């Protein structure tokens, strides 16, 4: 990934529970705020999403785009842009690290976004940071409030 922004948060749940929420795209509109619609277009042989269409409304940025997902083991998922109205590129990763014997999870979110409209690098990084922080806070709230299996 080229220049990117990243941040981490610790969630009071096992990595499998956290990844379960990350992989449940149909429920993104319930906890992400910016995602208004999510539709899995294709899945791999393990039933994990390969391509997902997302409709976003993040105030100034409204977009309908498709992302391709790559699953690395049980604790990492990366994505890249397939098509978009407003974005030139979007590359991201969720990496999960077990903490405290696997009862907690450190989630690191890396993101690099390039929009079709010109933005100063500093403004772009700040926007990436806001997106990451909101996503991590939403993920933490969603995972920690969900009943554990």
Automatic annotation (TrEMBL):
The lineage of its organism: Bacteria, Bacillati, Actinomycetota, Actinomycetes, Kitasatosporales. It comes from Streptomyces badius. This is Cyclase. Pfam families: Polyketide_cyc2 (PF10604). It comes from the Bacteria.
């Amino acid at each position: 990934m080229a220049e990117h922004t990243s941040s981490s948060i610790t969630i009071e749940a096992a990595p499998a529970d956290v990844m379960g929420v990350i992989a449940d795209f149909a429920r993104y509109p319930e906890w992400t705020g910016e995602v208004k619609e999510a539709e899995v277009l294709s899945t791999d042989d393990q039933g994990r999403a390969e391509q997902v269409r997302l409709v976003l409304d993040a105030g100034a940025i409204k977009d309908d785009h498709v992302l391709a997902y790559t699953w690395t083991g049980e604790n990492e998922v990366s994505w890249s842009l397939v098509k978009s109205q407003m974005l030139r590129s979007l590359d991201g990763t969720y990496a999960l690290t077990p903490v405290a014997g696997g009862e907690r999870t450190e989630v690191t979110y890396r993101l690099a976004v390039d929009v079709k409209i010109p933005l100063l690098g500093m403004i772009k990084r700040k926007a990436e940071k806001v997106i990451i922080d909101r996503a991590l806070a939403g993920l933490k709230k969603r995972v920690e409030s969900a009943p554990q299996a």
